[in-house]
Amino acid sequence: MNLVTSPLGSPPISAVLFDFAGTLFDDRDLRDVHLQQLRFVADAAGCTGTDDELRAAYRQGMGIAYRSIAGAPSYLHRNLFGGAFSGMATALGSSIDDATAQQAVSRQYRATIDAARLRPDCLATLGALRAHGIHVQIVSNIDDEQFGPMVTGLGLSDVIDAATSSEAAGSCKPDRAIYETALDTAGVRPQAALFVGDSIGHDIVGPATLGMRTAWLAPRPGADPGDARPDAIIGSLGEVLGLVGIRTPHGAAR
Fold first, then answer.
1. What's residue 219's pLDDT?
2. Are 125 and 24 within 8 A, CB to CB?
3. Residue 53's Cα: distance from chain center in Å?
């Protein structure tokens, strides 16, 4: 499987589990399409505001929505985002009905499916892992209505072995059940799995609690993971190859 010893030590890595949004694609690239939905909500609520004001109102709305599901091991993200859009309207001093909030979520889902673009080294990295016999899986807090079309539309079906959504698992990161479902699907023990992602809580602390090794995709060079202790900090997906001991065509581990 591996051509050189993994820098992560023993046992060797036989499965790599990837977060989706923020990891395989950069969700910061979706700021403009997301802003369109914020403007839609503001118009529906009869409100005006600068782009920064609309984003601030949405952050307030998301805070309200998260508090409403605090402690719940599983929830539909359609409901979470619908709550965030409703909370945004409230923060702007108005309101929208549930149908309008859900329309905003549907618009956001469609826009994300259409606009998301994989990181440049994504397909090559996942393909190389799989070619070396390593199980490759996406593990994401996402609803199936968005997850399936995105996996297919982004061309990921041919370079992964499995995809686990929070809806299918009945568990949202960092609840342990979604990681257990992913490990069962991979057929590996936690110690033989590497979890790669950009969220400290969801992709580093959560998997490490089960005994998985972790790699944090940092947002910028020198970023501090705080109290979390990922086994590796990377700046690109291609660096995962070196972590599992795969040589490049030129013979050097990456």
1. 92
2. no
3. 26
Flag residues of the chain having pLDDT under 70.
1-6, 248-254
CA–CA separation, 235 vs 175, rounded Å? 26
pLDDT at res. 70: 85
Q: Give how far Cα 239 sits from Cα of 111, 134, 233, Å.
A: 30, 15, 9
Q: Mutual orientation of helices 51-68 and 77-91 as an angle, nearest 10°?
A: 130
- CA dist 203 and 11 (Å) reads 20
Nearest Cα neighbor of 17 from 128, 120, 151, 160 is 160
Nearest CA among 152, 57, 145 for reference residue 108: 145
Angle value at C-alpha 20, between 213 and 238, nearest 5 degrees? 60
Around 38, how many Cα atoms within 13 Å sit in the side-chain half-sphere? 24
How far apart are the C-alpha atoms of 155 and 150, rounded to whole Å?
A: 8
215 closest CA partner among 226, 154, 227, 228: 228
Q: Give the Cα separation of 89 and 44 in Å (integer).
A: 9
